[in-house]
Design goal:
about 140 residues, 5-stranded mixed beta sheet
């Protein structure tokens, strides 16, 4: 009987911990929605000024020595700070190895339509592409 109780409790507990893990990403999506126009503006600026054809934005909740802060969570009362960087800086700092540069470029989405976001959480970091809403700007 105890064993059955444990087994039946597992899916619920698993579901609850799953939700907790997703919550930072839910807050990230809200912030990216809120930040979208500003991020797109900076992205276009990076390309127009010839700094890079591949803008990358870093989303984090701590301190990161990469790129430049463009949207500070403390100042904006949001959950995530966004920093602007480029593919070139990521390669230079070894985050993307020289060997991975070409494969990265193959999956890099049009910066006019998507923001490339390097999301840093305590468990690790990963790239996501978040679409800009159509009819903006």
């Amino acid at each position: 009987m105890d064993r059955e109780e444990l087994l039946s409790a597992t899916p619920e507990d698993g579901g609850a911990s799953q939700q907790k893990q997703e919550s930072p990403l839910i807050s990230l999506e809200k912030d990216l929605e809120f930040y979208a126009d500003a991020i797109k503006e900076v992205s276009i600026e990076i390309m127009v000024e010839g700094i890079s054809a591949y803008p990358i934005f870093i989303a984090h909740q701590h301190e990161v020595n990469l790129g430049e802060v463009i949207l500070n969570k403390e100042e904006l009362n949001t959950n995530w700070t966004i920093q602007a960087s480029t593919l070139e800086e990521f390669v230079e700092k070894g985050i993307i190895s020289k060997e991975k540069r070409e494969p990265f470029l193959k999956v890099y989405k049009k910066p006019e339509d998507f923001m490339c976001v390097f999301v840093i959480v305590p468990e690790g970091a990963n790239f996501i592409y978040y679409p800009y809403k159509k009819g903006r700007g």
